[in-house]
Amino acid sequence: xxxxxxxxxxxxxxxxxxxxxxxxxxxxxxxxxxxxxxxxxxxxxxxxxxxxxxxxxxxxxxxxxxxxxxxxxxxxxxxxxxxxxxxxxxxxxxxxxxxxxxxxxxxxxxxxxxxxxxxxxxxxxxxxxxxxxxxxxxxxxxxxxxxxxxxxxxxxxxxxxxxxxxxxxxxxxxxxxxxxxxxxxxxxxxxxxxxxxxxxxxxxxxxxxxxxxxxxxxxxxxxxxxxxxxxxxxxxxxxxxxxxxxxxxxxxxxxxxxxxxxxxxxxxxxxxxxxxxxxxxxxxxxxx
Length: 288
Fold this sequence. Notes:
Layout: H1 2-45, H2 49-52, H3 67-75, H4 78-109, H5 115-124, H6 130-143, H7 151-154, H8 163-174, H9 179-186, H10 191-199, H11 204-219, H12 223-228, H13 237-240, H14 252-272, H15 274-283
Helix pairs in contact: 1-14, 3-14, 4-8, 4-11, 5-8, 9-10, 11-14, 11-15
């Protein structure tokens, strides 16, 4: 009997370890598939154009051409595009984080007529494809004379930043005990003071999640600048790099170098705030 129980225990341990090994192998395969395009982009950025299209393909270049990253500053106005992108990014970041936080606080903590209806309408906007509102929005900004300016790309961020961010902040505020609000009210604080001094310090992880998503959305945005900006001196980084692609031929090594340089800031921001990003995404689903 004892031998049989021992055999069953060993079998259960081996079975659980087998599942762990299978799970790790699956995760490793998924990570490899996800990282392969990034590796191919970086590797191509350090090659000549002829090496990129060589068959069979090379995994690594014969000579590491770090000068490709310097050459992109000579071929296109890379610095100007970065400055234009930051000129849009900074106010959009401030507007989105500030207003989404305020809206989330209002829906989570305040009582006003039609609160659930308004929140349902905001969530419903997430189901609208951007193509549905593209033409009416473009016509509106045309009537306002804002085409070829940064207003269409910056101004909407000061009205909540989108339904997803409002929902995210509301969920995080609802995960905070209401006893904190009641204690502050007893001490004589109003709702503005509760928001600024009591709850705002507690929602930093969610604010960082909103900031990270906003950063990546604006930094990588190609369609918005393409629609509203006509003057090359106003182009953002994503749109400006299109100038590297010629009509009949393209320097793909420079395109890959520019794409790598554009991708690295987003990766760096994620790794610096990874702890808070994961915490913020996890905690927003605690209470609904």
